[in-house]
Amino acid sequence: MKDVIFEMYWIQNYDNSSAIKEKILAGDYPFTPTEIVYDGNEYSYNDGMVEFNEIEWFSDADISFLIYGNVNGRRASLTLFIGSLVSERYVRVIFSFTLSSIKELETCYSYFSIRGVFYSYLNDYQDQSWQSETSISHYRNNNRPYEHLSFIVKGGLRSIDVSGNVGRSIYYCNVMFVAGATMYFGESFKFINIDTLLSLSGSKQATLGANNLIQVDLFDIFKDDISYIRERQRYFLETTTLFERLEYVKKHSIGFVAGLKKFGYT
Q1: Angle CA(174)–CA(233)–CA(153) in degrees, nearest 5?
Q2: Could you report the average pLDDT of every consecutive run of 10 residues in the chain (266 residues)?
Q3: Does this model's pTM top 0.85?
Q4: 266 CB contacts (<8 Å, ≥6 apart)?
Q5: Is 245:193 a contact under the CB 8 Å cutoff?
Q6: What CA–CA distance (Å, rounded) separates 203 from 91?
Q7: How far is CA 84 from CA 9, 68, 139, 150, in A?
Q8: Contact in structure between 113 and 134 (CB atoms under 8 Å)
Q9: How many Cβ atoms sit within 10 Å of the Cβ of residue 97?
Q10: 8-state DSSP, 214
Q11: Cα–Cα distance list, 12 to 107, 108, 238 (Å)
Q12: Which of 198, 201, 170 lies closest to 185, judged by CA?
């Protein structure tokens, strides 16, 4: 079995917001829901659905909802976030659960029926998390060796240097970027030139539900060994220079739309 993360982002409009809300209300998750956390309060699943149904999706405030449950004897979750992507409102849905077979992803993939997908990816949750972890205390608390890792000192604090980890994620303007096992890029995703995306081995144009996407199959989280996975992640990042661009715009506090314009893909 494998702990996976499956993230989807939509540019928000009334049609896709209603469709996402309907799927969540209908219980379309790859796990059995048990509880909900909203606005700092915990609810049983049924009581939480009442709160969920009353949300005003187009308010100016950010909205965050977590639905917890179980699958394959392990904790699972769906995270819903609605917020601002500079001049755009967007919806982010994250599934985190233990996967025993690819078939269990069918429920996740059914969300592609909703138009407006900006970006989506499937990845190994544990690997992505540890490749991105900078806290020494987190390693200690989980009894993981860290002495062999590289370190940096910033502001007098010593932390783990993950800048050389091709499996890490970068969080920029409320979007999580990663060289994932499988990635989907919508028509509105312009941080990487479309010709570059299509030149990647494992890439293809795909129509999934209501979305025309570029699908990049980078590696198989079940079958491929870690050395091959790192090789493929390095290939993706070197070819697209995605992380270099993200690090640049983050360092210079450049917003998302300005960042797109900076690299000429709008």
Answers
A1: 65
A2: 92 88 92 91 92 82 90 89 80 90 84 94 95 89 88 87 92 88 90 91 94 96 95 97 84 64 53
A3: yes
A4: 190, 257, 260
A5: no
A6: 25
A7: 12, 25, 33, 35
A8: no
A9: 27
A10: E
A11: 21, 18, 31
A12: 198
Q: Which two tokens stand for residue 145?
A: 């060796």
Single-letter code of the amino acid located at 248:
Y
Residues 6 or more apart in contact with residue 47 via CB below 8 angstroms: 36
Residue-level pLDDT at 202? 96
Q: How many CA atoms lie within 13 A of 248 on its CB side?
A: 11
Residue 48, both tokens: 């939480």
3-state DSSP of 14-83 = HHHHHHHHHHHHCCCCCCEEEEEEECCEEEEHHHHHHHHHCCCCCCCCCEEEEEEEEECCEEEEEEEEEE
Show the tokens assigned to 57: 């999706």
Rounded (10°) angle between helices 14-25 and 45-53: 160
